[in-house]
Write a structure and sequence with these properties.
The protein is α/β, with parallel strands linked by helices and 319 residues long. The chain is 40% helix and 11% strand. Strands 6-5-1-8-9-10 form a 6-stranded parallel β-sheet, with helices on both faces. It has a two-stranded antiparallel ribbon with strand order 2-4.
Length: 319
């Protein structure tokens, strides 16, 4: 039977022949926490990349701003999935040809319209790799279906492998304990994040490196993990936040009873505030949280609370 994405990620972790990039060394951001307790909070909603998971730049890149990282990730992907044998023989290195094709596919996807004005199109990484695999298939590309699954399953695994080689991730210090503490206090938890179909499995694996966890359902309410690629739109799209918050409304939790935690101001904190949600900014690392003093003074963007360590949220929630 083909491996699930979670099983595949665990299998990759056990391979001694693979070397993965790591998140950048932590550089604390100079900020003063504001931890006055909030009352009436029944649920906590999280951003994943840059908040629960450490990652360079504080977000998942489709095209990394450092060209050498793109080269390394593409070279490893070509080798891992034996793509070279079915690639067109063009002048230059194979990764350069793939980069050209990959970039074109992303640009084409981004030009597709969203259903609602004001929303921003999200690119589905597995969809991009599926289209690339379809091109390879015209040149008799073959893979081990019994291991990878059907072509959509393969595209998902290729997408994860590429991104894992592009950007290293690790659980934010204290993340597992914080999630467990909030769950034990009887509060609901969910996610509204910019991410990909592999994001949940990637988060689970990172948390498992910190503690023996079987499933994200130990922390998060089923159905309340809203990921941008699954919605086809990314932050700061109002429809993305609306879809995520609607899942809590169905369960009797109103926006004013939700605390949203993220490391981003403009795309996250400022975008969700009009819904009436309470907000907390994680200003822990200079690499991921890029915020100015003016933004923190702007009433339309200013978070309700400011954390410099994820574990400080217990003071805000009084748990």
């Amino acid at each position: 039977m083909a491996k699930t994405i979670a099983e595949y990620i665990a299998w990759l972790d056990e391979r001694p022949d693979l070397i993965w990039p790591r998140p950048p060394a932590r550089q604390p951001l100079k900020a003063t926490p504001y931890l006055k307790p909030l009352t009436g909070i029944r649920a906590v909603v999280w951003e994943v990349y840059g908040t629960l998971l450490r990652i360079d730049g504080g977000r998942l890149y489709h095209i990394h701003p450092q060209p050498v990282r793109m080269q390394i990730a593409l070279e490893k992907t070509i080798e891992e999935f034996r793509m070279w044998y079915s690639m067109s023989r063009k002048p230059g290195e194979p990764w350069e040809y793939l980069l050209q094709q990959y970039t074109t596919l992303i640009e084409e996807d981004r030009l597709r319209r969203t259903q609602r004005k004001g929303d921003t199109r999200e690119v589905s990484s597995p969809s991009i790799w599926r289209r690339w695999i379809d091109r390879l298939s015209k040149n008799e590309y073959q893979y081990e279906a019994s291991f990878y699954g059907d072509v959509d399953d393969l595209a998902l695994k290729v997408a994860y492998f590429f991104h894992a080689n592009l950007q290293g991730t690790a659980a934010t210090e204290g993340a597992t304990d914080v999630l467990a503490q909030i769950a034990s206090a009887g509060m609901l938890q969910g996610v509204i994040c910019d991410g990909q179909p592999f994001t949940a499995a990637q988060l689970l694996r990172a948390l498992q490196r910190e503690a023996p966890i079987e499933s994200l359902s130990e922390f998060f309410l089923p159905g309340c993990m809203t990921v941008s690629s699954e919605q086809g739109i990314c932050k700061p799209s109002p429809s993305l936040f609306g879809a995520g918050l609607a899942e809590f409304t169905k369960r009797g939790v109103q926006p004013g009873e939700i605390l949203y935690v993220s490391h981003r101001v403009n795309d996250d904190i400022a975008a969700i505030k009009p819904f009436g949600v309470r907000t907390a900014l994680l200003a822990a690392e200079a690499d991921s949280c890029q915020v100015t003093a003016a933004e923190l003074r702007d009433p339309d963007r200013k978070p309700d609370r400011l954390l410099t360590d994820l574990r400080q949220i217990s003071q805000i929630l009084r748990i």
